[in-house]
Amino acid sequence: MAILTWSNQLELGVPSVDKQHQHLVEILNQLDEAVALGYEPQKVLKLVDELIDYTHYHFEDEERFMLEGGYDSNHFAKHKEQHQEFVQKVSQERENAIKNPETVSNDLIDFLVKWLMDHILFSDKQMVLELTKKGSSNEELIRKEQTDIMQSNLYSALRESENRFKELADQLPALIWITNNKNVPIFCNQFWLHTFGLSKETLNKSNWHDAIDPDDIELVTKAYATASSGLQEQQIEFRLHTPANGKLWVLEKIVPRIRKNGEFAGLLGFGMDISLQKQAEVNLEQLVNQRTKQLVEANQHLEVEKNQQLALNQQLKEVQSHLVQSEKMASLGQLAAGVAHEINNPLGYISSNLNTLQQYIQNLFQVIDAGQLVAQQLPADNPVVREFVQLQKSTDLDFMREDIPDLVKEALEGATRAKKIVQDLRDFSRIDKQDESQFDLEAGINATLNIVNNEIKYKAEVLKEYAGVKPFICVGSQINQVILNLLVNAAQAIDDFGKIYLRTGYEGDDWVWFEVEDSGQGIPADIQAKIFDPFFTTKPIGKGTGLGLSLSYKIIQDHKGKLDLQSTVGKGSRFRVSLPNHL
């Protein structure tokens, strides 16, 4: 690119001087191109050295020409001073270039252009006209010619620079555009025109954004307005719908063009097609979503398997606990049945013998009465009579006559009671019997209470509030076990001595219920949900297995019933069992 193009307008009419001036213009154009295109520092420094060499021979020749021509001494001195300033400026720039070879100051280029304009086109031309007398040395006329020459050359240089920029922009696969300060597009490169489906002839302010996605046009307009009003660079992403390539994603940078006086001159835009990048992002996002979905599904599957495993473990624990409890109860049932059988036999002949003894005693009393009548018929001093009377007094026959019947009666009542306990124990021992049959709930409560009476009578007063529940279908032995567990727990919940309430009743026509309420310690709210878990117990180690309520809950569940708890710490607990009323 040339800052100045040498022409006859620049010639002064002195061949040697003109030739040297032409060389200076060539050096200036080469130096400007080297700086603009980023030549290697050594090449730039070589041009600066060539410029310094130029000053040596040109200024000597020019000053000799002035002296030989008899140039005005004042004008000569001023001219020579300008030469010295030029040498100082170029030498200083050379020193700067040596210290920092990466760049040459733009001031040097500006200085050289100003030197061409003010010195060669004015001072030198004025000097030559005065010495040769070939034209007018009128300062105003020379200034006008100077201005015309510079404008002509600078306009040419500008046009050349613009054409080179446009040629370069048209070769790039990027969206490059320029607007004026009215936001009218004054240049769009070939790639931009092809992408947007427009031509230089059809491009105008109203249609140059037609290809932008309607959903993004507001974003683009706002970015251009911000860059124009705030004079700040903007970077945006938007979509295009192009006739040639369909939908595209564009990354665009918008730069405000600002004159040296600070005025806004328009916008410069540079855009790149980032559709592949966006598609890669979409694919990556889809892949991430797919993998995330797979992970979620895998986690859900693992969670289901975990829950199933926990459920199986819980079932295994329940089955294990039920097997242990069933085994214990079966052993207890066998033991109870054996004990009941062994006790029942002696109780039978004890009861039978007591009845026989009662009859024998009555017979003996009759014999005694007959003996007394005989003794009364004999003389009082008869030795046999005296011995008989003495025997009556020593044995306290009258007291024995009154006490023996009571003793026999109490013994018979005890035997009867023992027989009832044995019968209840035999009924309760049938815990492994799973057949459903008619079950008298209140009789079952009484029988169970009779069995655990020894454990309860020292802990609580038992209060019965029966509603006269009629027999219904269930596995009675299992319900007896539930009653037993609830009664034992109620007694153990009482510290000193309290009360246990036994109630029965109906809930509509479909349900029958019974409940066991105690005045004991109560159960804290935070563990009420755990008391039916297998092996959970609030009792000290060695005092409870944690299976009683768990087994009771399972029995009631198997009967399609309900087991509910109401408890207040410090006041007691109430367990209510509701069972279907199958008649």
Average pLDDT confidence is: 81
Describe the sheet with the most strands.
5 strands, antiparallel
CATH class of the domain at 433-580: Alpha Beta
Helix content: 55-70%
Supply the helix-strand structural class: alpha+beta
What gross morphology would you assign? rod-shaped
* Strand proportion: 5-15%
Number of separate strands: 12
CATH superfamily of the domain at 433-580: Histidine kinase-like ATPase, C-terminal domain
Task: Give unreliable regions as ranges.
Answer: none
Based on CA atoms alone, the radius of gyration comes out at 63 Å
Strand order of the largest sheet: 2-1-5-4-3
CATH architectural label of the domain at 433-580? 2-Layer Sandwich
- CATH names the topology of the domain at 433-580 as Heat Shock Protein 90
